[in-house]
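Per your request, structure below.
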C-alpha cells in the first residue's frame, strides 16, 4: 500500500537562458514538428501533488524515486487520452522497482487543446512555470528515474525547473521519455548540463503511441532497460 508524504509549496527557481539551452519545449517527431502531452481541466492543487511512497521505498537496496511530468487530453498520434504517455511508463517503472513517485505539475493549468499547448510551451521559455509541492526528503534518494515527453527536441521547461530546484550531487539520474520519433533527442546531455555533479545513466525512449496502445511492448522495453541498469526483476 502506498502512503502519501507531506509536502510544502515553494516557488521554484527561474531558469536562466543558459540553463534552458535556447531550445523550445515540445515533443518533436522525426520531421521536427511539435507534439506535447497535456492535462485537461485546471492546475493541480497542493493536496493533489504529493510524493507517493511504497512500504519499502527502496529497490535493490537503493532509495529510489520516480519523478515524471505527463499530461492528458488531446495528444499527437494518440488522440484524446485519459492517462499520459509518460505516466504509463512511470507507473511501469515504479511497479517493477517499488520506487516512490512524484508527479511534476504546474501551478497553472496547461491549455486543453493541442494548438494551445504549442503556444504555452513557447511562452514557458521566458516565463518558466512553478511546480506544485516539493520532495521534502530528496536527500534520502540515491537514484532518480526522471520522465518527460520530448518537447521541441528537448526536456520541457518545467522539468528543467524541477532539476534546478534540488541538489542532485552524487545521485544517479536515469532519464526516460516518450516521443513521436525523436528518441531521447539528446536530453540526457541537457540533464547532465543542469546536474553536472550527478551521474546521468543511459536513458529509455518509448514512443508515445506504444505506451498508450501497446503496453506489453512498453513493459518489455522497461524491463530490459531496468535490467541493463541493475534492476533485475
Amino acid at each position: 500500500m502506498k502512503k502519501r508524504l507531506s509536502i510544502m509549496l515553494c516557488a521554484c527557481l527561474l531558469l536562466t537562458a543558459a540553463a534552458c539551452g535556447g531550445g523550445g519545449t515540445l515533443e518533436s517527431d522525426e520531421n521536427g514538428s511539435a507534439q506535447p502531452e497535456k492535462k485537461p481541466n485546471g492546475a493541480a492543487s497542493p493536496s493533489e501533488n504529493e510524493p507517493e511512497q511504497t512500504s519499502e521505498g527502496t529497490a535493490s537496496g537503493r532509495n529510489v524515486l520516480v519523478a515524471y511530468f505527463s499530461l492528458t487530453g488531446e495528444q499527437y498520434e494518440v488522440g484524446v487520452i485519459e492517462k499520459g504517455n509518460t505516466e504509463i511508463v512511470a507507473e511501469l517503472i515504479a511497479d517493477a522497482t517499488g520506487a516512490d513517485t512524484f508527479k511534476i505539475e504546474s501551478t497553472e493549468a496547461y491549455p486543453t487543446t493541442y494548438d494551445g499547448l504549442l503556444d504555452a510551451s513557447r511562452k514557458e521559455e521566458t516565463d518558466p512555470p512553478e511546480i506544485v509541492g516539493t520532495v521534502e526528503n530528496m536527500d534520502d534518494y540515491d537514484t532518480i528515474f526522471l520522465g518527460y515527453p520530448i518537447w521541441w527536441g528537448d526536456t520541457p521547461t518545467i522539468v528543467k525547473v524541477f532539476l534546478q530546484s534540488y541538489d542532485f550531487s552524487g545521485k544517479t539520474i536515469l532519464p526516460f521519455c516518450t516521443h513521436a520519433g525523436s528518441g531521447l533527442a539528446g536530453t540526457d546531455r541537457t540533464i547532465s548540463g543542469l546536474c553536472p555533479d550527478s551521474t546521468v545513466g543511459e536513458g529509455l525512449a518509448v514512443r508515445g503511441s506504444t505506451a498508450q496502445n501497446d503496453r506489453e511492448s512498453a513493459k518489455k522495453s522497461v524491463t530490459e532497460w531496468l535490467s541493463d541498469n541493475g534492476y533485475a526483476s
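The longest helix spans residues 215-228.

Regards,
D.
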